[in-house]
Write a structure and sequence with these properties.
This protein has about 375 residues and is α/β, with parallel strands linked by helices. The chain is built from 13 helices and twelve strands. The strands form two sheets. Strands 1, 2, 3, 4, 5 and 6 form a six-stranded mixed beta sheet that branches. It has a six-stranded parallel beta sheet with strand order 9-8-7-10-11-12, with helices on both faces. Helix 5 packs across helix 6. It binds 1,4-dihydronicotinamide adenine dinucleotide and 2-OXO-4-methylpentanoic acid. The site of 1,4-dihydronicotinamide adenine dinucleotide has 26 residues, from helix 5 and helix 6. It comes from Salipaludibacillus aurantiacus.
Length: about 375
């Protein structure tokens, strides 16, 4: 990857490469756009095949956060970190504390939280070194693990998508194929089960699948069979790029609504999905519950306020479908326009110098 070329193409502000030999920390912090406020986005720990893959993931995820935070109406920009390593083997206290010090060095331009491969306990270690971290333990007055709230947001967003596709937002009797039953999806399965949906699940982690089978009466399928399974809703909740040239022809679902970030391998896959008449709930809107929840910590966490805001995901998804129909554009593009318009408006209106830019956080209530 030619880093500067890539950054210029998608207008990234900053990429920070962090290395700490003692702890084994290798982290890439990508800050895409801070027009709306400090960049907030989680930290993913993953075993990448090579450095290029890690850079690309950090950059793509950071851009997604710019759009997610803008579409959610947050006064926050977009950033994300990837730590290169195996979350099951390579973690240690010194690593997350070293990472915390690097974040502190950015002086508030970037605020972190959990993502795939990192936990509340990891963020508590980061908090030992910096205030610019969210999703830490409730014992610190924080909101804890964002995953259950993300799951709730995906659930309400899925209902809005079901209304668009089937004329009714009830998920009772609907068959939902859930790909990945990790932190978010397991909680999503619980909501769906409680409403009477039928679940089909898959995961590379057999124990997670077994739990979903036992607790929710889910049917388990092989990881390669999830796309072609007979279902009403396909819910991608593992990693990104699962909506692509190979998988779209296999899909039988009328709706795609899931938690994963960067579900479309390329933008054009959003066009193809639309042409096939599949209702696609844009990923960064439907999965914004977690960031909405942790962002509330920045103004003094209030769970009721945060959950009320998460419930607006239903209206946001509905609005996107309305724009999509009105302007005859795919839903992913309707979401992008909504986010871009907000960023551009704010970019134009915020020209005068302020001594304390962080104060904008308190105005997002
Ligand atoms: N945790 C959160 O609050 C948020 C998460 N997301 C996104 O949602 C997705 C899931 O996040 P979490 O549940 O936190 O992660 P997680 O790591 O707890 O769950 C992911 C699950 O996917 C499984 N998996 C990985 N590759 C797979 C494959 N090829 N086929 C089937 N299963 C596979 C893993 O074994 C794991 O159980 C990620 O894309 C994440 O970026 C987005 C917004 C917020
Ligand atoms: C996990 C969230 C709190 C933030 C984030 O990184 C995301 O929404 O993808």
């Amino acid at each position: 990857m030619e880093l500067f070329k890539y950054m210029e193409k998608y207008d990234y502000e900053q990429t920070v490469v962090c290395q700490d030999k003692e702890s084994g920390l290798k982290a890439i912090i990508a800050i895409h756009d801070t027009t709306l406020g400090p960049a907030l986005g989680g930290t993913r720990m993953w075993t990448y095949n090579n450095e290029e893959e890690a850079f690309e993931d950090a950059l793509r995820l950071a851009k997604g956060m710019t759009y997610k935070n803008a579409a959610a109406g947050l006064n926050l920009g977009g950033g994300k970190t990837v730590i290169i390593g195996d979350p099951r083997k390579d973690k240690n206290e010194a690593m997350f504390r070293a990472f915390g010090r690097f974040i502190q060095g950015l002086n508030g331009r970037y605020i972190t939280a959990e993502d795939v491969g990192t936990t509340v306990e990891d963020m508590d270690l980061v908090y030992s070194e910096t205030d610019y971290v969210t999703g830490i333990s409730p014992a610190f007055g924080s909101s804890g693990n964002p995953s259950p709230v993300t799951a709730y947001g995906v659930y309400v967003g899925m209902k809005a998508a079901a209304k668009e596709a089937f004329g009714d937002d009830s998920l009772e009797g609907k068959t939902v194929a859930v790909q990945g039953v990790g932190n978010v999806a397991y909680n999503l399965c619980r909501h769906l089960h409680e409403e009477g949906a039928k679940l089909i699940v898959t995961d590379i982690n057999r124990e997670a699948v077994q739990s979903a089978v036992e607790e929710f009466g889910a049917e388990a399928v092989d990881i390669n069979d999830i796309y072609s399974t007979d279902c009403d809703i396909y819910s991608p909740c593992a990693l990104g790029a699962t909506i692509n040239d190979e998988t779209i022809p296999q899909l039988k679902a009328k709706v795609i609504a899931g938690a994963a970030n960067n579900q479309l391998k390329e933008s054009r896959h959003g066009d193809i999905v639309q042409e096939k008449g599949i209702i696609y709930a844009p990923d960064y809107v439907i999965n914004s519950g977690g960031v909405i929840n942790v962002a509330d910590e920045l103004i003094g966490y209030n769970r009721d306020r945060a959950m009320k805001k998460v419930e607006t995901i239903y209206d946001s998804i509905t609005k996107i479908f309305d724009i999509s129909k009105r302007d005859n554009i795919p839903s992913y593009l309707a979401a992008n326009r909504m986010a871009e318009e907000r960023i551009e408006t704010m970019r134009k209106s915020r020209r005068q110098f302020l001594t304390n830019e962080m104060s904008i956080l308190s105005r997002g209530r």
